[in-house]
Structure formats: C-alpha cells, structure tokens
Amino acid sequence: MKKIIYTLLICLLTATYSYSQELLIPLNDDYEMEIQTAAYSSDYRFHTSMKSWSEYQFKDILDLDSLNKSQFIVKNYNKKWKNIVWNSIFNTDFIGTKTDDFYIGINPIVDFQVGKDGSKSTWVNTRGAEVKGTIGDNFAFYTNLRENQAVFPDYITDFANVNKVIPGQGHARKFKETGFDYANASAYISLRPMYWLNGTLGYGKNFIGDGYRSLILSDNAFAYPYVKLTADIWNIQYTCLYSQMSDKRRVLDDDTFARKNIVIHYLDWAVTKRLNLGLFDAMVCKGQDENGVRRGLDFQYINPIIFLRTTDYYVGTSPDNALLGATASFIAGKHTTFYAQFVLDEMTVKEFIGGNGYWANKQSYQFGVKSFDCFNVKNLFLQGEFNMVRPYMYSHYDGEDNYAHLNQPLAHPWGANFYEIVARAQYNYKRFYFQYKMNFGQWGDDITTEDGEFQYYGHDIYQNYYDYYQIEGYDKPYYGHYMLTGELNTLMMNNFVVSWLVNPSYNLNVFAEVTHRNQKIEGLDNINDFIISFGIRTTLDRKYYDF
User: Fold this and answer.
1) CATH number of the domain within which 87 lies
2) 0.70 surpassed by pTM
3) Which is nearest to 386 in space by CA: 507, 133, 215, 216?
4) How confident is the model at residue 41 (pLDDT cuts 50, 70, 90)?
C-alpha cells in the first residue's frame, strides 16, 4: 500500500498535463437527478457502474457549471455585498473563489433535526465543514470533517449497541443515557497525469453497480483508506482499487484494530451506447497472523491484471478470500435502464444442479430497472430492484478475511441469507423534492437457544462458515441450507421525504420525513416503528437505515 501511495505522489508532483476538472460527484444521488439522467442516456457511451463519478467524465455530454447556474435563485440588490450574501446562502459555495487555474470552495456541513419514534424523542446534531478545490484542470482535492451527537430510533440504537458502530458513520461512543457521540471524515486527492489515466488517493467510500444496492461493493460501511487507479482505453474502463479495512472485534497489542487488505479489479466495457458489460474480482488478505504480527500486503496482490490472483484461490493455493462477479446494464428507449449483478463466492456445479441446499453454493443476484424522465414527465424517477443473497455468502472460515469493514458488510447491509425488493420514486419541481422508498424482504436469522446453543444459518457474515448448523432431515450436515433457513424475519419499510433544496452547491436542504417500519419475527409479536423527523441538513452521502 505504501509503495502505491508513494508512486501516486511522485506522479502528482511531476504532472504537467491539463484536462477537465477532477472533482468527484458525491455518491448521494437524491439531488443529482440531472446528472444521473445524462449518464443513463442512449445518446452516449458512459461507464456508469464505477462510482464516484468524476466531473471529467461529463466533459463531452454535460456542462456542470451551466447546470448549477440554471438552479440559481436570482435576486439583484443595489449593494454588491447583499448579492454576495444572497448567493452564498442560496446558490454558490458559502466561501469560494474561482479563476481560470484555481478554484476553492468552503461550505458548512450541518444536520440539525428533531423527531419522534413513538413516544421517544429523537434528534441529530451534526456540525462540520468541507473544503474542495482544483489546481489547473488535472488536479483536485477534497476533505470534510463532521462531529455528531444523536439519539436515534430504537432499532438503530439496538444496532449501534450490538455492533459498536453507527451505520456507515463510524465508531459509536455513548452520549448521556440513550445517545451516541461519533465523528467521521473523508478526503481525497485526484490526479489525471494523462487523458486516459486517473489516480485517486483517498479516505472514503466507493460503489460498483447501477442499483440502489450493490452486491459487489457499496457505500454501506464506514470510510476506509484507498488508492484507485482508473484507465479509459477505447470503450473500456479498467479500475484497480487497493484498500485497507478494519475488524473492530480484535484489538492488537498496539491498541489498533486488526486490518485486512482488499484488492478489487473492475473492467467495464461500453459495448454500445445502450449496453455495458462488466467483470469484477476481489481478494481479501488478512493483515496480521494469529499472533498479531503485521503481514502487510503481498506484493502479488498489487498486480493490476483481473482474475490473475483469484485463480490461485480457486485452485486451492491461497488461504485468502476471493470473490468473482459480473454486471450488465441495457438502456431501453431514452433513459430506462435494466441492470443486473452476479457475484460468486463458491459454487460446485454438481451440487448446484442437485438442488440439495449445499452450504458452499454461495452466490448473490441483483436485477433491477430504473427510468429517468419517466412517461415523458421531466424529473420523474422510478426504480424497482430485487436482491437475493444465499446463506454464508461473503463469510470466511477466518472471520478476519470476510468481506466486511468495521462490523458492517461491504456489500448489502443485510449480510446474507435474504431476499429484498426495493421500490423508489422521486419527483422534483424546481427546488422541491418528493421522495418515496419501499423495502420489503425476508431473511433467515441465526439462533441462540435458551440454553445458549448458537445455531449458524449463514446470516451473520462474521461467523466461521464451517460452523454451519446441521439441518434436521438430512443425512449429511452440508445439505439442507436453503434460502431463509433459520429464524424467519420479515421486514416492510416505507419512507417518504419532502424537501426544499436551499443551496445546490452543497445540497443544503430543509426536510420533513416519515418512516414506518414493521418487522415480524417468526413466533414473536411484530415490532412497529412510526418515525417522524424534520430539520435542515447537508446531504452529501447516503445513510442506509433501511434494515
């Protein structure tokens, strides 16, 4: 990892080329529908799956500066300082300057909200700031820092107490009786030394896919350090992502968490303006041995060739964890996209065909469709998605080699042994936004009996997958592990948000939100949450509270 960082910094100091700006577009897409519509269009070849997108990718299809200015609320005052104040509040960076060769913007980050979960009062108090800028056209930098205190709805509180993290937002420290104190940050520098090559050194999140969820790599877990190299050659985009994750369950002698290195290769081919096909592999390499001695990153993992290292795993010569996968998307009509993902952890063809519920047939599937300017209604967005993950997917016999980071899955927040249906709708008129989301799904949970026996059915990806529970009625312990085996949970969530975008430069918005959550656990009473909240917040990233 250090060698990669040093190499990237040398390139940064010696680069003299000049191209379009390299700032990254935030992963939150709620207020970026115009950009999404341009990307998912049959008019262009565009590599949509690897996110965050950079502004450079839109240089030939969308003028982002003109798009931002089209959202301005114009108010002319006689005194110049009044115009500056008006624009800082409603239109532009709070503090900023821009010339032909230099740009910097400084903005506040806030989330001040109050609400109710039944009779319980909830609130969030977030204060922070972001700094972003460009030097020339080939170098960009960004950083943000946030300090937070919050009292969450009960189901999020329960999650934080068990996992010791706030979903996607960092370590959970107790605050007074029922609240939490937590901090989070992200940063990156992005360099394009040649028109076909980009290098990003960052601390943040990445996302692979075209759906609301990703079964390959999502932004569900907390931020992590990474180096990302992206090459665009012909109609192919090839990405190498080198990252370091943490395992909060194990503290080493130097008072740091156990670490793992994950190397991801993703190749996306824009076959036509409508069809994209992608291939993916990942290797998870534990960062220390059983005694806590740092193992470091095996030099062989730095190789940039897809499938080269994962082949060692599948022929049995590597103790590490490997994943393979594929993606596809097809644009029908003008802006309607059908998309799919398939991820393979392990599979025995004979057992797959046999249909006996073989425990080591571990795969996940995603199918979805989304449409922009749906039914020729401008700014109307609709999406439907199906996700299915078989038991024991993403786990490993050594829990430190699982596909997770800081007590959360790197793919879907539900872990494994589940299916889910997601429906989303959004419409905006000028700066008013109306958003609806429904999640319905079932999972088979692991069970701890009254006498303390733990029965592992493949839901918790942090367990040793060899500890699978023997299913009654099968003469061999590795059979009978079908979907939803275990304690059946059924979840229905409905979420509705109305917001007004105060400032599009950093997605400051005032909002009101209503969520209804119903969880049915087999043999127990339903758990119902009716949650309302309102406030003002800066929406820069996605928070996955739909679990």
Assistant:
1) 2.40.160.130
2) yes
3) 215
4) very high
